[in-house]
Amino acid sequence: MSRIRFNALQETSNRSPLKVLQTEKRSSLFGKNVFNKHAMQQYLTRSAYDSVMNAIEHGTKIDRKIADQVAVSMKDWAMSKGATHYTHWFQPLTGATAEKHDAFFESINGSLAMEKFDGEQLVQQEPGASSFPNGGIRNTFEARGYTAWDPTSPAFIYETTLCIPTIFVAYTGEALDNKTPLLRALQAIDTHATAVCKYFDKNASKVSATLGWEQEYFLIDDALANSRPDILLTGRTLIGHSPAKGQQLGDHYFGTIPARAMAFMQDLEQECMLLGIPVKTRHNEVAPNQFEVAPIFEEANLAVDHNSLLMDVMEKVSRRHKFKVLFHEKPFADINGSGKHNNWSLSTADETNLLSPGKTPMKNLQFLTFFVNTIKAVHENGELLRASIASASNDHRLGANEAPPAIISVFIGSELSAVLDELENVTKGKLSPQEKTDLKLNIIGKIPEILLDNTDRNRTSPFAFTGNKFELRAVGSSANCAGPMTVLNTIVAKQLKEFKIEVDKLIDTKNLKKDEAVFNVLREYIKESKKIRFDGDGYGEAWEKEAKKRGLSNNKTTPEALKIQIAKKTIDLYEEMEVMSKVEVEARYEIAIEEYTKRLQIEGRVLGDIARNHVIPTAIIYQNTLLENTKNLKEIFGEDYKNIAKEQIELIMTISNHITEINALTLKMEEQRAKSNQQKGLKSAEMYCENVKPFFEEIRFHCDKLETMVDDNLWPLTKYRELLFTK
Ligand code: ADP
Ligand code: MG
Predict the structure, then answer these.
(1) In this structure, which ligand is nearest to the CA of 214?
(2) From the CB of 147, is ligand 1 less than 6 Å away?
(3) What is the C-alpha separation between 627 and 622, in angstroms, rounded?
(4) Using CB atoms within 10 A as the burial measure, which of 128, 396, 536, 548 is most buried?
(5) Cα 110 to middle of ligand 1, angstroms
(6) CATH classification (class only), 186-580
(7) Which of 216, 15, 13, 248 is nearest to 718 (CA)?
(8) Best CATH choice for the domain 31-176 from the list 3.10.20.70, 3.40.190.10, 3.40.50.300, 3.30.479.30
(9) Where does the record place the GS catalytic domain (predicted)?
């Protein structure tokens, strides 16, 4: 056994769970390290508090004097909790989070010192961010970028640093991050959903999107993970024979949580409580060593920040527990990978869920309006939604019979389908009083009952209605939720805008009553968006054929999927909804394409190294043992050795064949890589996808075969069976 593998296994053999001290009730820890409403009430003057609340609820500006007051209070609060530094915390287009810490400490005349933090430092910073991806934005305009305070997501303390959530923009105003377009999309959905709400409640004043994510992940002992260069550099295993026992028995899913994982979760949950991340659910997932954590849903911007923060905290806490947490969508072959379901809905100022039917016919019509408009939005923009979840790592999952396919469809269940079918037959134009009564009592009146005991679930649908929310089930586990949430909220906002125009037109020109007009437009939408609805098995081949017949797109790879992002239709949409400018859209596309290429390039290099430096030399050493053995047998038994050493000789030949194949394939892959590297942008990404990536599986095949033949004592890479079964 290689020294690295041996040491790693030795190191892990005596691990026991870390004791987690739990002294206080969870609820009493909640939000303790967050500058939330409660802390603000304690620390801010009345006018400062009102000003911040106004900014949060109505997007008003906070003036400089107030910002100074807020900064001083924030600093006092943070220092009372042991903070020494502050940082603007933002989400650049790498998808991760970024922070640069500055001390509150300042010296005066070189001899005295004090802690200082003022409005200027709170509101705006220039993080010297020239190395973040910008997709050409800063080359064409100005080199500088700055971060600006987002008061809608509260500041928090992590370890000894006060973290202030911020947006990150170029000096010319273009967004260089994930948060800015998300905030603009949330503004758009607020505007257009509130306008539609006014049909049903003239006092409607605000609509927020809500998001409840479910984060899946793997926990691998860190010594074992560190012994694998592929896990270390790419986040996944590039080779590795599947263990005799994987997930076949289904004994991990919802099973007893292993003790070490449990200790990690308890520690993580305590950190989350302090940070105000309302985590509630934890359980084993399908694959061995795979788990899930999910919070109570929150306003979408906050929920996105909390997911990004959670992923950071998970990495830190996992280190304490001698684990490496893997967010990659497919870290191991032959067992399930990880996703991040995004549960989404819309909520009014009084916390009415717009995707939950109410008690009156009017409220049910409101539910139906948002329900049908969402379906229509996905129908019009399925490809864009698909693009929003595209990444090199998520390509492994989509359509791999463990995650929904790359074909976007909507599942609503048979009972709601029946309601929509009935609505399709509503008379065009004016409705008779009888018809109106019938509609209200018998069709939409039935909805609450239907949903009450609606147990229809479809785990194979990428976008499923689950009783009071839609669940976007195709998001990758490593993704930043801001991407899909920006798209979903933008397309629904645009759809609601169209809806309002059409309804108003019918009221004005056809003299229809409001509810008649609403019914009329919904009926058309139901008809027009029928092809996006699918309740069957999304994993089956039959659906792929059927979807093709229906004209639904099936963009299986990231380069293919991303193209729609820069289509004229998409740019028009973003510009109309004031979510992104053409420059911002194109920059994001360029970054996504480049990231895809780089990821495959890194994987190709690592695989080449492992195949050449680990697998082939080990196979040769073992082959030499066999040769030595055969030679010895010949010496003792003379020509009879051919019979006696038959197995050895065959094995020697087989090993040679695999070595030859690995060598030849690796060389060919390198050739293709070199060719792809000569191209730029989409062309390079496409070449990596079509010409380089296919070699990964082929090379792996031969390496994995060798793993099953070579003496276990010699094999250098920690095996799946050792990586995957933490107690
Ligand atoms: P499951 O889907 O496993 O049956 P739940 O229905 O309880 O479980 O919810 C799953 C996720 O959906 C949770 O993270 C929860 O916070 C979220 N969720 C529930 N209601 C909403 C809502 N109105 N908006 C957004 N997310 C929601
Ligand atoms: Mg779910």
Answers:
(1) 1
(2) no
(3) 9
(4) 396
(5) 55
(6) alpha beta
(7) 13
(8) 3.10.20.70
(9) 178-615
Pocket of ligand 1 contains residue 604 by CB under 6 Å: no
Which two structure tokens, joined as six digits, stand for 317? 């806490």
Residues whose CB falls within 8 Å of the CB of residue 38, separated by 6 or more in sequence, listed in order: 31
Only one residue has tokens 């790419």, namely 234
Ligand 1 atom closest to Cα of residue 344: 25
478 lines ligand 1 (CB under 6 A): no
Q: 343 CA to middle of ligand 2, Å?
A: 7
Residue 642: both structure tokens together: 């051919």
Instruction: Give the pair of three-digit tokens for residue 209.
Output: 């999107």
CB of 343 sitting under 6 A from ligand 1:
yes
How confident is the model over 98-111, as pLDDT tens digits?
A: 888 889 998 888 78
List pLDDT tens digits, range 141-189. Answer: 555 788 999 999 999 999 999 999 999 998 888 999 999 999 999 999 9
Q: Are strands 105-108 and 112-115 parallel, antiparallel or unpaired?
A: antiparallel
- Which of the four CATH numbers 1.20.120.1560, 3.30.1250.10, 3.30.1490.20, 3.90.650.10 does domain 595-723 have? 1.20.120.1560
Mutation test residue for ligand 1: of 285, 293, 297, the one with most atoms within 8 Å of CB: 297
Domain ranges in the chain with CATH number 1.20.120.1560: 595-723
The neighbourhood of ligand 2, an ion, using CB within 5 A, equals 341
Q: Does the model's pTM come out above 0.90?
A: yes
